[in-house]
Amino acid sequence: MQERDEKRRDLRHEAKEPPEATARALIRTCARATLASVLRRDFAVGWPYASLVLVACRPDATPILLLSDLADHSKNIMADDRVSLLFDGTEGLAEPLAGTRLTLVGHARETTEPSDRALYLARHPSAARYAGFKDFRFYRIDAVGAHLVAGFGRIHWLDAKDVLGGGPSAARAG
To answer: 54 lies in a domain?
Structure first.
């Protein structure tokens, strides 16, 4: 009972934050996400394809991924870079649908920025074993929008520039 009350208290606290700040905080705290890309398989061209990925982010919350060219999601991205990332903050909640989740919609773009590599490997040190393989590439997600569900009745479509630290909400939320 006490655990459930603490979780409810946390949800009330989140309700005081602007939705953009809640979205940024979720991106920054999640070490993994669900990546959805446009499938390129003969039997299902154009269908959504979702897979689990590890994620890190830049200081502005722009997500960074490390993907193998051999993976279906990478092949999909090479043909069509439109993706979405689902960040799930509902783990451990007695009622997951009352928890926070965010779908970030955007384009997966390869990045060779040394800082992106450093941020990713700092978040996922074990990835250093394979990050240098020729078939692995780092990607950033250039977001165009975001859909935040922060519990029942707290549903917002958000402008990407506000979520990723560039808009007026970022200045308010810090």
So the answer is: yes
